[in-house]
Amino acid sequence: MSETLFGIHGTALELRSQRMGLLTSNIANAATPGYKAKDIDFTAALKARTAGASADKAVDGATRYRVPVMPSLDGNTVEMATEQTAFAENAVGYSATLNFLKGRVETITRAIKGE
Description:
With 115 residues, the protein is mainly alpha-helical. The chain has one domain. Helix content is 66%, strand content 5%. It contains five helices and two strands. It has helices spanning 2-6, 9-28, 42-50, 55-62, 80-113, and strands at residues 38-40, 63-65. The radius of gyration is 17 Å and the shape is elongated. The two termini are 23 Å apart.
């Protein structure tokens, strides 16, 4: 039912949330020796989800290790500027998707109330 009410936006919100967690983990481990930064290819994950893959399979299939521009001597591949940019970009997308869903719920609520 949520697919018909919210379309692709419910799935997009779920994927953006999972990506946010991964980016947060990267930032939290910026000083951990040997930590390998990962990111989710949002477009690939969304395509997999809309094609019928489970959330876990879609995310696992779209998760990639980052290739650092300037690798550190301790093997850590987290680059704070890259992570912060990706985090901000994802946060904007998350907020936009959430606002769309909020508007959709308000529209449905008004329709139910007969306004």
